[in-house]
Amino acid sequence: MKLTKDQIKHVAKLANLPLSLKEENKYFDQLSKILGYVEQLSQINTLEVEPTFNTSGQSNVMREDKITTSLSQEEALFNAPQKKYSRSACFDSVKRAGEVGMFATKGAFEEKT
Amino acid sequence: MDKNTITKLTLIQTIKALENKKFSEEELNKAYLERAAKINPKLNAIIISKKNYCGIPAAIKDVISTKGIRTTAGSKILSNFIPPYNATVVNKLIDQGVSIIGKTNCDEFAMGGSGENSSFGSTKNPWNLNKVPGGSSSGSAAAVAADLCVFALGSDTGGSIRQPASLCSVVGLKPTYGRVSRYGLIPMASSLDSIGPMTKSVEDAALVLGWISGSDSYDANCSSADFLLQPCKLQTGIKGLKVGIPKEYFEKGLDPKVKSVIKEAIQKLEELGAEIIEISLPHSKYALAIYYIIVSSEISSNMARYDGIRYGLSRQDLGQEVKRRIMLGTFALSSGYWDDYYAQAAKARTLIKQDFDKAFKQVDVIAGPVSPTTAWNLGEKIDDPLKMYLSDIYTISANLAGIPGLSVPCGFSENLPVGLQILGKQWDEETILRVGYAYEQSTNWHREKPKI
User: Fold this and answer.
1) Eight-class DSSP state of B154
2) Which of A92, B135, B153, B263 has the fewest CB atoms below 10 angstroms from its CB?
3) SS3 category, B136
4) Which whole number is the average pLDDT over B105-112?
5) CA B23: distance to chain centroid?
6) Closest approach of B447 to chain A, Cα-based (Å)
7) Whole-angstrom distance, CA of residue A91 vs CA of residue A100
8) Which residues of chain A have a CB within 8 Å of the CB of B69?
9) Considering the domain boundaries, does residue A61 fall inside one?
10) Residue of B nearest to A7 (CA)
11) In Å, how far are A104, B58, B176, B446 from B191, measured between CA atoms?
12) Which residues of B touch A12 (CB under 8 A)?
């Protein structure tokens, strides 16, 4: 199968992977070569063969619905690269006494001005 | 006992020596810490070290979470990540009196077969510092080979325990998929990942597997059956045992010098009373193509969850191999290509599994090479991903089928180690360990140590 440069761009967008132009060109070459190799999959007769997704043989594994201790807010936030704090409605990155904070992330929606 | 003797001991010997008060836990830890301080700078096997004065010092591959100890997965994006919890295997080891002497270097997110994809520099092969140690459990293999720890844990998704074990002359055991909890293992491909021991002897591997196996309510795939192997069972010998030799594993691609070492090892098994039977695993030639579609698809799905919000740097800072696999997997799962790539590979995976099912009706274990070559030069394959992938050709099938596999030191070719691979039936680690033990006890390869 022959890849196109547009496909590389499309796949990078699907994967939420920002690529430089140099990377785009490199992956275009390398992925074309790898896809050329995996082309042989089409030679295998898989009519009437069921797919294998898991080999452990386990299914519907349940455990008791019991509350156990979980991470504290401090522990969960410990590694966060950006945190926000709020006492009132406005969020900022200044920590006030007694505040643990929350994860900060880019907003999904932006307000129209 | 002098320090150089202490660090040469196997896990079983160390436990016995501690029981007999030949040395204290403090002396044991000091001996390893001193050796690691001297040797590790040459190897770059341990990337985060920890000082302890009690416990049995073990090294843990850095894809396995350790509470309060930096866990990077060999990646720049996790270079400051400190897990707030232990992986289940780490808790189980601590319960047995094990202490962590260090986190070992590995290919970024365990993606690679040479150790060169680590953001923290390559690990060097203790047998020749210009060669790769194999991967992705590169640091664990090198650390055990160079006596920087009593034993180590690795993870194996396509050969990442067995292949570096083979290239560094240590014992590496990939258990049956589902034998050991993956909770706390930074995931690569969730239907293939297995955690397992890398040790100085086969008996050690059996003991460590016993320690880390068993049920875990945090991993629904994990079997509730504890693995327990009595030493007397390990020592029963292999008289009359049927050993299958897959003809596909000895065709072109296998280095003739490695081939002759493996043939000799098989002859040894025959001398020990095993019956050698040629078998066929007809779909072997497709295994690599199947594996790379499945592994990349699962990687793209797992890595899609990485957002850099809760921990770590942004996705942009991922390394080249990780990005390459995310791209390939995203493509294989994308609309219009899913049927031809992912679905077709998942069906073909069934055929690989059926090859083994059929073979194991005829034989008890399967033996062959781990790696088609010995350790290659650092930098040699880094720009040719397909060539690099081909070094996993004999190990990936076991992951696709979910069966256990063992690598045992079986000699040298031009002063570089060669490993014998023994594959077993699902859940039957016992028999492959028995074969490995019988072979090891009748040869001296495991006693050879690199001069560093």
Assistant:
1) E
2) A92
3) coil
4) 98
5) 30
6) 36
7) 13
8) none
9) no
10) B331
11) 32, 27, 12, 32
12) 327
pLDDT digits (tens, 9 = 90+) for B206-242: 999 999 999 998 999 999 888 888 888 999 999 999 9
Confidence of residue A88 (pLDDT cuts 50, 70, 90): low
Domain of B376, in residue numbers: 3-447
CA distance B75 to B88: 22
CATH number reported for the structural domain that contains residue B37 in this entry: 3.90.1300.10
Are A49 and B309 within 8 A, CB to CB?
A: no
Q: How close does chain A come to B276, measured CA to CA in Å? A: 28
Residue from B119, B122, B136, B300 carrying the catalytic annotation: B136
pTM, two decimals, is 0.96
- pLDDT band for position A98 (cuts 50, 70, 90): confident
Query: Of B61, B92, B174, B259, which is the active-site residue?
Result: B61
- % residues pLDDT > 70 (chain B): 100
- More confident of the two residues B441 and A98: B441
Q: What is the mean pLDDT of residues B90-111?
A: 98
Q: How many structural domains compose chain B?
A: 1
Cβ proximity of B367 and B261 under 8 Å? no
Residue A58 has pLDDT above 80, yes or no: yes
Would you call B317 exposed, middle or buried from its count of C-beta atoms within 10 A (0-12, 13-18, 19+)?
middle
Residue B338 sits at the chain A interface (C-beta within 8 Å): no
Q: Is residue A79 part of a domain?
A: yes
CA torsion angle B374 B377 B380 B382 (round to 10): 90
Catalytic annotation on B160? yes
Enclosing domain of residue A17: 5-43
Stronger pLDDT, B194 or A92, i.e. the higher one: B194
Rounded to two decimals, the ipTM of the complex is 0.91
Indicate whether A66 belongs to any domain: no
Residue B452 maps to a domain: no
Instruction: List, for residues B289-344, the tens digit of each pLDDT value.
Output: 999 999 999 999 999 999 999 999 999 999 999 999 999 999 999 999 999 999 99
Q: Tokens at residue B166, please?
A: 């083979």
Residues B178, B330: Cα–Cα separation, whole Å: 26
Mean of pLDDT values over B21-39? 97
Query: Residue B322: closest CA among chain A residues belongs to which residue?
Result: A17
Residue A50 lies inside a defined structural domain of this protein: no
Tell if the CB–CB gap between A30 and B385 is shorter than 8 Å. Answer: yes
Determine, for residues A81 and B312 on separate chains, whether the beta-carbon distance falls below 8 Å: yes
**Active-site option among B140, B160, B201, B371:** B160
Q: Exposure pattern of A21-57 as b/e (b: 16+ CB <10 Å)?
A: eebeebbbebbeebbeebeebeebebeebeebeebbe
Residues 6+ apart with CB under 8 A from B73: B62, B63, B106, B108, B109, B110, B186
pLDDT band at A111 (very low <50, low <70, confident <90, very high): confident
Q: Are B179 and B223 in contact (CB under 8 A)?
A: yes
Least CA distance to B191: which residue of chain A? A54
Is B61 part of the annotated catalytic residue set? yes
A1 has pLDDT over 70: no
What pLDDT is attached to residue B1? Answer: 86
Domain count along chain A: 2
